[in-house]
Design goal:
6-stranded antiparallel sheet, Alpha-Beta Plaits, 7 helices, 274 residues
Amino acid sequence: MRVRLVFQVINRGGLLPFHHQRLLSDFIKATIRGSRQPFAGSAFYNFSGLKGQSRVTRDGLFYDSAKVTFVLSAGDSSFIDNFIQSLFTYEQIYLGTLLLRPYQVIKEDVYFQYNTTKFVCLSPLIIISEGLPQAELKRFISPTDSAFNNLLYESTMSRMERSGFFSPEEIAGFSNFSFEPELEYLQKSKELDKKYSRIYTSNRKGSETEVRGYTLPFVLRASPAVQDFIFHSGFGEETEEGFGMVDLADRSHKTKLVPYYEGSYDMQGKENRN
């Protein structure tokens, strides 16, 4: 399940770091721990940064909008259900210096029918995260290099296997996999000296590690089941730390937005006694 979480901003003018995934990661983990059925381990979830009217300042992102939004997604819909139940028990939430109030949840229903889809990155894509020296985790690998494709394929198949959503026979049938970065975007980034690859700090397993992340549009040629998995559970490594969320580049893709209702709560979080 994939949802857009909308919050009212109580103190317009608050600040967040440019890369505030760590704050959101800690908030999500704390919220799910407080749910009625907390998850002890991985739920294969991922999330975007906080979106709203903002501007870049020396100290970070300055938010000047009445509402802000971020996207949360998981392969297990019960993870989202329990998160939202817990979320709407909060009267207000501090995130950085922003004071927020949960307001609305909108569910995104997306259906993948074809073997080719163009995506964009809502958060940086990590292709290597552990098992190598620190220098290797930060090493730049060109998105056009076959090694980039191979690492993403291995990561995706490993995560799909660990998720328990697919049988070994199904995973064996997902061998057709091709990651193709948008070459025009890479060229323009080079001409404008715009970085699509940076070093980020991750807090996986309780210790800070520097990893390289990539933010770029790309075409993925893979089974619709593989596309559905990365869209809902994240692409690449460290998705639960705020990396690897993708979105459709073409919003005319078959997408349906519906109000989210769960149990006795309506989409504004108010108890429904009707």
